[in-house]
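User: Please fill in residues for this 121-position structure.
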């Protein structure tokens, strides 16, 4: 595992813990940090998150994370032993939503196929 991978994992773990235990923002309900990508020079960290919510609630979560980014970064500086704490960029991870839509489409195709095969009998 490379140094950047270790840093990404540490940031993911700490940001998850900070969001769940330290932040009191009501907009930040159940959030899952799915991945962290840090630039090689540690100047930026893209933090991907997913949330089970409607579109309006997702916007509120994004706003809550944006307003909390400085506080989260400060706590990361206290918890991680790295020289430079990157600027945090929060991005919505839509892969779970995309996967659910694909599974739903597959199920629809299977159901249609079963219906058609029973109609042929």
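Assistant: Residues filled in for all 121 positions:
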């Amino acid at each position: 595992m490379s140094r950047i991978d270790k840093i990404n994992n540490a940031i993911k773990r700490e940001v998850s813990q900070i969001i769940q235990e330290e932040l009191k923002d009501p907009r930040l309900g159940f959030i899952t940090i799915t991945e962290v990508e840090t630039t090689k020079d540690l100047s930026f960290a893209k933090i991907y998150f997913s949330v089970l919510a409607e579109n309006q609630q997702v916007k509120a979560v994004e706003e809550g994370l944006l307003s909390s980014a400085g506080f989260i970064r400060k706590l990361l500086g206290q918890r991680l032993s790295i020289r430079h704490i990157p600027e945090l960029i929060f991005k919505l991870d839509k892969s779970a939503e995309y996967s659910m839509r694909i599974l739903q489409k597959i199920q629809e195709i299977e159901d249609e196929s079963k219906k058609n095969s029973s109609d042929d009998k």
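For context: The two ends are 57 Å apart (CA to CA).
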